[in-house]
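Support request from a user on the community tier.

User writes: "When I paste my C-alpha cells into the form, the page sometimes reloads and wipes my input. The last time it worked, I copied everything first. Here is what I submitted, just in case something in the input itself triggers the reload:"
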C-alpha cells in the first residue's frame, strides 16, 4: 500500500474514532524496568507457575504485541525515546544520566506530556524519571502536573533497604565520624554510627531520594514499601482525574536491581527473589487496572504495559528471561557474552507489551506488527486529537490502526536500533529490522554470568538473520540466499537515508557534564544527605 494512501486511510480512521468517541480517552502507560519478554506468563503457550497472573489476565482481555521494541536498550535513552518519539541521534540522549549530571532531556525537545497538556489533558507521572535531576529538567517542568518518584535508578545511591543486587549494595551510614570531619553536627546517635562504620556494611555515598513534585520527601527512600506507595499514588490520581481526560505515565523501579518486595510477597513465588519482586510488580499493575474499573472509566481508557529494555544479564539469578530471543550467534560464533540489556540483539530490545482497552482493542489477540515505544508519542497525540510539533522529524509512527483494527501491516516497515552501551560508538544506529529480517552492522555483547565475553565486531557486509525461521538469531543468511543482496542493498540505503535525514533535522545535544555541588540533597549537613530514617 502506498504511503499516501496509508496516510489518507489513517486520517479517516482517526476522524471516525473521534466521531464515535466524543470524550477524549484517558491514557495510562506502565513502563517496567529491565523486564524480559519471557517474564510475562502470557507470552508462553503454557504459562504454568506464572508470576504475572494480573498481566496474563490483562493480555487475555487485551492484545499482546509480539514484535514490540524498546526505543533503546538502556534506561535513559529508552525513556527519552518513549517521551519524544525520537531516537537518541536526534535528541542527544544516547546513554544514562547519573546523580551528579548537570543536564537532562534537552529543553528543545517536546514530551508527549507537554503535547497532551496542550490538548487539554491532566498529566501525572509516578516512578523513575532518569532524564535530568535539576529544576528545569525535572518532570514537573517537562509537562507533568504531578510527580511522585525517583529521579534516576534505584541503584544510583544508598538506602537503608539495599535489597538484592550483585554485588550486594551497602546501606547508608549514619556517619557521625564523617560528619565531624566535615565540621557539621550528626543527627544520629553515636553508637549507631560507630556500629555501622565498624561493620563496614555502610557507605557515605549519596542516598537515593524520593520526590513529590519538586520536593524531596524521603532520603534515603524506603525501597521495600515503594511499590505499595506507587500503587497508592496511582489509585489517588485516577480517582481525582476520572472526570476529565488524563495521561498517567507510571515507570516502575521493578525489575531493576536492587530488588525489594513487601513482606506479603515473601512466599509468593517459587522463582527466588526475582520471582517475588515480579509478583509485586504484577500486583501493582493489577491495582491500576482495578482503579480504572472502580472509577467506571474502563471503556474510555487506553492502557499500555511495556518495558524499557531486556534483562540485565550480569545480575545472574536476579535477571529476567529473554524467552526465545537468545542471540545465539553471539555465544556460538561471536565469542560469548550477554545479549540482553545494552545490546541490539532481540533479547535487548524485544519488550513484553500488552495493549488494553475493553470494547476497543481486541481481546485475546496477538498482534505481529513491528512496533516500538517510539510510537507512543504519535499514537497518543493522534487518539487525543492533538497535533505533533511540526518543526522536527520523528522515528515513531501512529499505531491507531494497528491497535484499534488489529492491522498487523500498519506498523513499521523498518526500525533502527541504536547502540546503547554494548558497542564502541554509543548512539549510532548499528542494527535494524526490515520486516522479518534483522540486520547487524555491528555486533557487541555485554558481560553475563556464563563465561567469556566476545569483542565488538563491525560487519561488512552486514549480518542478516531471518527471524521468521530463526528467532534465536543463530544462523545468518549466506550470500547464496535468494534475497540476500536485495536485503543488504536496502539496509545500506535506509541507513544512508536516515543518517542524512538526521543531519538535516532539528537535533539537540545533551549535557552530560557533572557537578558535586548540585546533587539532589534534602540535608546538606549529612554526608549521605539523610533527612529520614
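"...and here is what came back when it finally went through:"
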Amino acid at each position: 500500500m502506498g504511503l499516501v494512501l496509508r496516510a489518507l486511510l489513517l486520517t479517516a480512521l482517526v476522524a471516525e474514532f473521534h466521531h464515535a468517541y466524543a470524550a477524549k480517552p484517558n491514557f495510562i502507560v506502565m513502563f517496567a524496568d529491565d523486564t524480559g519478554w519471557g517474564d510475562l506468563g502470557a507470552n508462553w503457550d503454557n504459562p504454568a507457575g506464572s508470576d504475572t497472573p494480573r498481566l496474563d489476565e490483562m493480555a487475555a482481555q487485551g492484545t499482546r504485541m509480539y514484535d514490540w521494541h524498546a526505543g533503546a536498550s538502556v534506561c535513559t535513552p529508552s525513556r527519552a525515546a518513549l517521551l519524544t518519539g525520537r531516537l537518541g541521534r536526534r535528541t542527544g540522549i544516547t546513554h544514562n544520566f547519573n546523580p551528579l549530571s548537570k543536564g537532562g532531556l534537552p529543553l528543545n525537545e517536546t514530551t508527549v506530556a507537554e503535547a497532551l497538556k496542550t490538548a487539554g489533558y491532566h498529566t501525572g507521572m509516578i516512578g523513575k524519571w532518569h532524564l535530568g535531576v535539576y529544576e528545569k529538567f525535572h518532570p514537573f517542568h517537562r509537562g507533568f502536573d504531578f510527580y511522585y518518584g525517583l529521579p534516576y535508578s534505584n541503584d544510583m545511591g544508598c538506602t537503608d533497604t539495599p535489597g538484592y543486587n550483585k554485588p550486594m549494595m551497602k546501606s547508608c551510614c549514619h556517619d557521625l565520624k564523617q560528619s565531624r570531619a566535615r565540621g557539621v553536627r550528626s543527627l544520629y546517635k553515636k553508637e549507631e554510627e560507630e556500629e555501622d562504620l565498624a561493620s563496614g556494611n555502610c557507605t557515605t555515598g549519596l542516598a537515593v531520594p524520593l520526590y513529590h513534585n519538586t520536593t524531596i520527601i524521603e532520603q534515603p527512600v524506603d525501597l521495600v514499601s515503594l511499590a505499595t506507595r506507587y500503587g497508592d499514588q496511582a489509585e489517588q490520581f485516577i480517582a481525582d482525574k476520572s472526570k476529565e481526560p488524563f495521561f498517567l505515565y507510571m515507570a516502575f523501579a521493578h525489575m531493576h536491581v536492587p530488588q525489594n518486595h513487601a513482606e506479603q510477597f515473601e512466599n509468593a513465588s517459587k522463582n527466588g527473589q526475582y520471582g517475588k519482586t515480579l509478583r509485586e510488580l504484577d500486583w501493582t499493575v493489577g491495582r491500576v487496572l482495578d482503579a480504572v474499573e472502580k472509577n467506571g472509566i474502563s471503556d474510555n481508557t487506553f492502557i499500555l504495559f511495556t518495558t524499557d529494555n531486556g534483562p540485565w544479564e550480569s545480575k545472574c539469578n536476579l535477571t529476567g528471561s529473554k524467552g526465545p530471543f537468545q542471540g545465539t550467534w553471539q555465544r556460538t560464533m561471536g565469542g560469548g557474552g550477554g545479549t540482553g540489556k545494552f545490546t541490539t540483539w532481540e533479547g535487548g530490545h524485544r519488550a513484553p507489551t500488552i495493549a488494553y482497552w475493553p470494547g476497543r482493542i481486541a481481546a485475546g489477540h496477538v498482534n505481529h506488527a513491528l512496533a516500538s515505544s517510539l510510537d507512543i508519542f504519535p499514537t497518543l497525540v493522534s487518539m487525543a486529537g492533538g497535533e505533533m510539533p511540526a518543526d522536527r522529524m520523528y522515528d515513531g509512527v501512529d499505531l491507531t490502526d494497528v491497535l484499534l483494527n488489529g492491522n498487523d501491516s500498519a506498523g513499521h516497515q523498518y526500525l533502527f536500533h541504536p547502540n546503547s552501551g554494548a558497542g564502541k560508538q554509543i548512539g549510532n544506529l548499528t542494527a535494524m529490522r526490515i520486516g522479518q529480517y534483522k540486520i547487524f552492522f555491528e555486533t557487541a555483547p555485554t558481560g553475563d554470568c556464563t563465561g567469556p565475553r566476545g569483542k565488538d565486531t563491525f560487519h561488512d557486509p552486514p549480518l542478516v538473520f531471518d527471524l521468521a525461521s530463526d528467532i534465536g538469531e543463530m544462523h545468518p543468511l549466506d550470500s547464496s540466499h535468494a534475497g540476500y543482496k536485495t536485503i543488504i542493498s536496502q539496509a545500506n540505503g535506509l541507513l544512508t537515508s536516515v543518517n542524512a535525514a538526521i543531519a538535516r533535522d532539528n537535533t539537540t545535544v545533551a549535557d552530560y557534564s557533572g557537578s558535586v555541588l548540585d546533587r539532589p540533597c534534602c540535608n546538606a549537613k549529612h554526608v549521605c544527605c539523610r533527612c529520614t530514617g
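Agent notes: The reload is a front-end session timeout and is unrelated to the input. Confidence is low (pLDDT under 50) at residues 178-190. The longest helix spans residues 272-294. Escalated to web team.
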